[in-house]
Design a protein that fits this description.
Layout: H1 7-10, H2 14-35, H3 37-46, H4 67-72, E1 86-91, E2 101-105, H5 106-122, E3 130-133, H6 141-153, E4 156-158, H7 165-174, E5 179-182, H8 184-196, E6 208-212, H9 218-228, E7 231-238, E8 243-249, E9 256-258, E10 263-268, E11 281-288, E12 299-308, E13 320-321, E14 326-327, E15 332-334, E16 337-339, H10 341-350, E17 357-364, E18 367-375, H11 385-403, E19 408-412, E20 427-429
The chain binds 5'-O-[hydroxy(phenylacetyl)phosphoryl]adenosine (DLL).
Length: 433
Amino acid sequence: MERYYQPKLETMPRDQLRALQDERLVKQVKHVWDNVPYYRAKMEAKGVTPEDIKGVADLHKLPFVTKADLRDAYPYGLMGKPLSECVRIHSTSGTTGKRVVAFYTQHDIDLWEDCCARALTAAGATNEDVCQVAYGYGLFTGGAGLHGGSHKVGCLTIPISSGNTDRQIGFIKDLSATILCCTPSYAAYLGESMKELGMGPDDIPLKAGIFGAEAWSEEMRQDIQNTLGIKAYDIYGLTELSGPGVAFECSAQSGMHINEDHFIAEIIDPDTGEVLPEGSKGELVFTSITKEAFPLLRYRTRDICQLNYEPCPCGRTHVKMCKPMGRSDDMLIIRGVNVFPSQIETVLLNHGYAANYQIVVDRVNHSDTLEVRVEMTPEMFTDNLGQIDKRQKELVAGLRSMLGLAAKVTLVAPKSIVRSEGKAVRIIDNRKI
Ligand code: DLL
């Protein structure tokens, strides 16, 4: 039987949900107009006033917010509440120089934790469960979000944070953890480390995992489910909109329900900004309709995605988003061809490799080169050069048929590609463009 954390809201008939969104949007636009001069100026420049926005049907009239706006307004320029009412910040790592700082009132945190509690409940968590939160704690939203959600559900929460793999496995075993929350690449690494210790899925009590914060393929899901003996659920979110829990998977494991009572989703053409018809593939744009301290209207995520409005067997009525197919800013353009790392991952996993790889792009004599470095699994490891050459050629053919591009494939020894405890770093782009 499907269980919900907030059944009324999660299964609300769509016409009622739309009415709720209409009402909340109107209120939010007024809040932003009155309290965020930066956004008010953008609205004025577009000739829009709060009176023009009567509901979701008018959403397209509002200007977008982009990462560039967040940078311009850094750090306090997009706040909707005075500092005295804010209780916390979170921030992205800013490794690409694009640090984002988001603010929360206590009310914002409360609603965010509800969203994470919905995700945990959808994965089967109850107050009988022991939930190991192995996302990073601190500025990153993963640890704090799932931690708060786990408390709300009433799970015994293990705030272990990421890293120290032996201790992770020890705690899972000793404290009988049943739910694991971490990035999918770290979950795969934990599975790999367990194997090395001679442990299999039957040696641990885990039953479900909530994995997100980075792209992962269906093939990787199967892999993790088999090695850890669990059901692996996807969860999506971004710092700008609170963190994890903007959308989450249910028992159907076929897309993530967007918490539409808090976020309105649109799909736009990333080049023209035009709103695309239902079911189209494009850039995901979110409007937060309940956030007070950092209320973003029409925020361009850069994630490329598709929405599915078909009724879901789980009974939730909220629209589902597919696994993001990549980011418009992660998409590599190699010799004019659009390449998403997820496509490469699919080929590798289909050929029996684990998701331990690096994509190296360079430019030689004015032409782009693509190299995929892939670890052999311990089972396939060999020093037979003929065997390695054959395997490399198979992958070259697989990549050519997926991407329409010639790639160089280099098979490397197991464990030679550095593991990440958080989000994996898969792309090395050496082109000086
Ligand atoms: O990654 C929040 C989060 C924490 C989500 C824990 C899920 C679990 P940021 O660091 O701001 O926030 O990164 C946001 O990560 O725009 C996507 O490109 C990517 N992303 C997040 N979840 C997924 C997912 C957190 N399930 C950016 N699948 C987003 C693919 C994801 N990409």
